[in-house]
Write a structure and sequence with these properties.
Largest interface: A-B, 91 and 98 residues
Helix content of chain B: 55-70%
CATH topology of chain B: Cytochrome C Oxidase, Chain A
Low-confidence stretches of chain A: 338-347
Number of domains of chain A: 2
Strand content of chain A: 15-25%
Shape of chain B: globular
CATH class of chain B: Mainly Alpha
Mean pLDDT of chain A: 88
Largest sheet of chain A: 5 strands, mixed
Oligomer: heterodimer
Radius of gyration of chain B: 23 Å
Mean pLDDT of chain B: 94
Distance between the termini of chain A: 98 Å
Number of strands of chain B: 0
Order of helices and strands of chain A: HHHEEEEEEEEEEHHHEEHHH
CATH topology of the largest domain in chain A: Immunoglobulin-like
Distance between the termini of chain B: 23 Å
Radius of gyration of chain A: 29 Å
Number of helices of chain B: 16
Chain lengths: ~350, ~550
């Protein structure tokens, strides 16, 4: 059978211009697609079965062929069959889907973390090295990447169809998603949760690069300060170090090494310190008082942006010793002292 | 030309046929006699007019949405306008058309007759619920006139509470009032079924239409108050900043999702269950056969009503809920799919050994079975946790929902409307043109929504005003399908009105159906029955009917 070359070209162009199946560009994508084809198979088999029953009976028992109906009560055996077989199939779908879900939402421990802040109507990405991007995300192939995401205003949702991952970006709460890109190229980022006027403009591109290209990109586009370095500056300029100095008489708890540790709170509960806890403790300190300390920390709600909070959190995550905190404190105190009238004795 | 061999239509001799001298339509004259009526049949007709009007409005919005999506660029309307279009399409179609569609029109009209009662238990509350629907509808119309609302029909916070300056409170008030209309209808049906069954009408002699409505009514009464609470809190948060949902004020934005879906998931069953009821009646009548496994079909409606309340979190799988609670809700979602599968097979096997004819209601009912199977099975995709991550919030959801609600519910509604049209009006609809409309709707529907499944898997997000160019071909197909579908829906509106004057006189029982409603005159008397009926036969007892007809012939002849 020959297809006319003109028609062939037309078909190729048409298929090329109008995608029918998304690209697979992450390690998760083949797993999702496998489940998709299984579900598709169930759907087609189910539909063919129901279609065959209906058309078969409609033809066989139409009035012309079967003028008088035979009354049937039902059949427990048949009904049990079409209760149990669908139930079994649905349970397979449940288990398969659950395994995939846990794969998608449990990041590997060695994942590289990138922060994403959503706001009406743009996506801001903050790399640990201090690279900032808007409506774009550069990632390397072959390395798990975790996105820690938060919204500055309303619900958004971060979707990368080519990776088959998506997660709601929620105001006031970190949510995470991870992927490992496999194929260099650019892919769509969509906001899939309706978020107001320019919802359909809240789109972007994820650029997947080979590890070498990615390294070149990180070096060429850094702002010179990492997130943690920004955070250190904020820590000093907001006066956090005055109480959280790590000294024995300090009014606030020692923060060096606090990330990842287990903390006893004043209300008797125990928490593991993670990103979300650090963020909440800055914004809503009275609910997060460490045991043994007075609830004197003021709230920083409304005084610090989500990006600032991310900087602080990254700084605290990296804080292993209070040496620099105290140095900064001493420097700033002596700087303050300098313009004072000479001869006054410092307390 | 009355009945040919391939139909069961059994019309009186058209030269001598007349409508009954006394019936509910000509019992009283004047507009007030309709506006102040307590007759469930007249209220059903009032509802029919109201929801047809709103269906037209919702349909126009849908048409404009599809027209905008013909091209990838945002060129027909502005972004804000587009957002208002899909919001109002959703609010109008769900709260003003789908929720009241079958229960408030056909259910209202038929349930008292089917169980042998004179009216619903609370006729005046029934009228009140229509007025509430009209008032709620007026608030929705006012929202449109004042400049619209763009929250999406889901009223998602904090978008709806802090970030929009459109008429959220007006629209919310409309939904709040419509909720009460729905609660009153549900309450009325529950009490009627419990208290007003005729002597001999035991629970298991009730038509499955009544069972389905009973199950849906329980959901209306238990679920709708939660919607009212959610909407009230949105209004209070918006006006008084009480801080229930806004994280900046110490609220929890996910709480709204829980409250909203606690109603809105059961709501899809509220919408579809009465449709199931219609399909059971229609399939049985046109196969001349008792519904296969009556008890299983009856109890599967109740099972859906129970499990339907326990699956709401499957709308929130990617919203950062606990992975383990997601497991539970996914499992329950799979379980709730089983009763629907049972129904599909029971209906299919009702055809077996029947004596089947293909009048318009049957055409719609068969279309329903096919489309609802697709709608139901694609629901399994979405209930399967890992698959949901990729598919949720895309056009796959849009297509799935429309397969259930339009391919399922609307087809069932049209099946029911054609089936009981002779009873409601005393006249037949024109058969040939209505069959054509069923076929046109079926083709148009599939062409509209099948491409949307593919778009969804490609990742096209829903509620997008503009989209990447590679999605255009599929969108063009969808818009073309919507045009065909529009024609398919417009046809019944025209020929049904035409038939009011020119349709053939139907007689009592043109379908030779077994339901109690077919044993009385069409259109019925205001009091439905001349004397209170005593029921001594099972539902769908075609032998009883044959015997009865035989006797009548002997007596009259």
């Amino acid at each position: 059978m020959h297809i006319s070359p003109v028609l062939w070209q037309f078909l190729v162009k048409w298929l090329d211009a109008s995608a029918l199946f998304p690209q697979e560009a992450s390690t998760i994508a083949p797993y999702t697609d496998a489940l998709y084809f299984f579900l598709l198979l169930i759907t087609i088999v189910g539909l063919v079965l129901v279609g065959a029953l209906i058309f078969g009976f409609a033809i066989r028992y139409r009035k012309e062929r079967n003028p008088v109906a035979t009354q049937v009560e039902g059949s427990t055996l048949l009904e049990a069959t079409w209760t149990i077989i669908p139930l079994a199939l649905f349970l397979i779908c449940f288990v398969w889907g659950a395994l995939l879900y846990f794969r998608i939402f449990n990041p590997p421990t060695n994942a590289m973390n990138i922060y994403v802040v959503g706001k009406q109507w743009m996506w801001k990405a903050e790399h640990p090295g201090g690279q900032h991007e808007i409506n774009n995300l550069h990632v390397p192939t072959g390395r798990p990447v975790q996105l820690t995401m938060i919204s500055q205003d309303v619900f958004h949702s971060y979707s990368i169809p080519a990776f088959r991952v998506k997660r709601e970006v929620i105001p006031g709460r970190y949510s995470t998603v991870w992927f490992e890109a496999t194929k260099p190229g650019t892919y769509h980022i969509f906001c899939t949760q309706y978020c107001g006027t320019k919802h359909s403009g809240m789109i972007g591109e994820v650029t997947v690069m080979s590890p070498d290209d990615y390294k070149a990109w990180t070096e060429s586009s850094t702002s010179g300060m990492s997130l943690a370095q920004n955070g250190e500056r904020l820590f000093a300029s907001m006066g956090c170090n005055a109480c959280h100095s790590g000294g024995a008489a300090a009014r606030g708890p020692n923060l060096a090494g606090v990330y990842g540790s287990k903390l006893r709170l004043a209300n008797g509960s125990d928490v593991v310190v993670n990103e979300a806890y650090l963020r909440d403790a800055i914004l809503n300190p009275s609910q997060h008082v460490t045991a043994g300390f007075a609830p004197i920390m003021p709230t920083y709600q409304g005084q610090i942006s989500e990006e600032g909070l991310i900087d602080l959190v990254e700084y605290l995550k990296s804080l292993k010793t209070n040496y620099r905190v105290q140095q900064t404190l001493t420097t700033s105190e002596s700087n303050q002292a300098a313009p004072m009238t000479p001869g006054v004795v410092k307390p | 030309m009355s009945a040919t061999s391939s139909t069961i239509v059994n019309l009186p001799d058209q030269r001598t046929a007349t409508l009954p001298k006394k019936n509910y339509i000509n019992a009283e004259d004047g507009i007030l006699s309709w506006l102040l009526t307590a007759d469930h049949k007249r209220i059903g007709i009032l509802y029919l007019i109201t929801i047809t009007f709103f269906f037209l409005i919702g349909g126009i919005f849908a048409g404009l949405i599809r027209l905008e999506l013909l091209t990838p660029q945002p060129d027909l309307v502005a972004s804000d306008t587009y957002n208002k279009l899909f919001t109002l399409h959703g609010i109008v179609m769900i709260f003003l058309f789908l929720v009241p569609s079958v229960p408030a029109t056909l259910g209202n009209f038929l349930i008292p007759i089917m169980i042998g009662a004179k009216d619903l238990a609370f006729p005046k509350i029934n009228l009140l619920s229509w007025y509430l629907a009209v008032i709620g509808g007026s608030f929705t119309l006012a929202t449109m006139v004042l400049g619209g609302v763009d929250t999406g029909w889901t009223f998602t916070t904090p978008l709806s509470t802090h970030y929009l300056n459109t008429h959220v409170v007006t629209a919310g008030l409309g939904v709040f009032i419509l909720g009460f209309s729905s609660i009153f209808t549900g309450l009325n049906i529950i009490v009627t079924v419990h208290r007003l069954r005729a002597p001999g009408m035991t629970w298991f002699r009730m038509p499955l239409f009544v069972w389905a409505h009973y199950a849906a009514s329980i959901m209306m009464v238990l679920g709708t108050p939660v919607l009212a609470i959610a909407i009230t809190l949105v209004a209070l948060e918006r006006t008084l900043h009480i801080g229930v949902f806004d994280p900046a004020l110490g609220g929890d934005p996910l709480l709204f999702q829980h409250l909203f879906w606690f109603y809105s998931h059961p709501a899809v069953y509220i919408m579809i269950l009465p449709g199931f009821g219609v399909i059971s009646e229609v399939i049985s009548t046109f196969s001349r056969k008792r519904v296969f496994g009556y008890t299983a079909v009856a109890f599967s409606s109740v099972a859906i009503a129970v499990f339907g309340f326990l699956v709401w979190e499957h709308h929130m799988f990617i919203m950062g809920v606990s992975n383990y609670s997601a497991l539970v809700f996914s499992l329950l979602t799979m379980l709730v799919a089983v009763p629907s599968a049972i129904k599909i097979f029971n209906w299919s096997f009702t055809l077996q050994k029947g004596s089947i004819t293909f009048e318009t209601p049957m055409m719609y009912a068969l279309a329903f079975i096919g489309l609802f199977t697709i709608g139901g099975l694609t629901g399994i995709f979405l209930g399967s946790l890992g698959m949901d991550v990729h598919l949720t919030e895309t056009y796959f959801i849009v297509a799935h929902f429309h397969y259930v609600m339009v391919g399922g519910m609307l087809m069932a509604y049209l099946a029911g409307l054609h089936f009981w049209w002779p009873k409601m009006t005393g006249r037949m609809y024109p058969e040939a043109v209505s069959k054509l409309s069923a076929v046109v709707s079926f083709i148009g529907f599939n062409l509209t929504f099948m491409p949307q499944f593919i778009l969804g898997y490609l990742g096209m997000p829903r509620r997008y005003h503009a989209y990447p160019a590679e999605f255009q071909v599929l969108n063009v197909l969808s818009t073309a399908g919507a045009t065909v579908l529009g024609v398919g829906f417009l046809m019944p509106a025209i020929y049904l009105v035409w038939s009011l004057k020119y349709g053939k006189i139907a007689g009592n029982n043109p379908w030779q159906a077994t339901g109690l409603e077919w044993q009385i005159q069409s259109p019925p008397l205001t009091e439905n029955f001349v004397e209170s009926p005593v029921i001594d036969y099972e539902a769908y007892d075609y032998e009883w009917l044959a015997h009865k007809t035989e006797q009548e012939v002997t007596t009259v002849g």
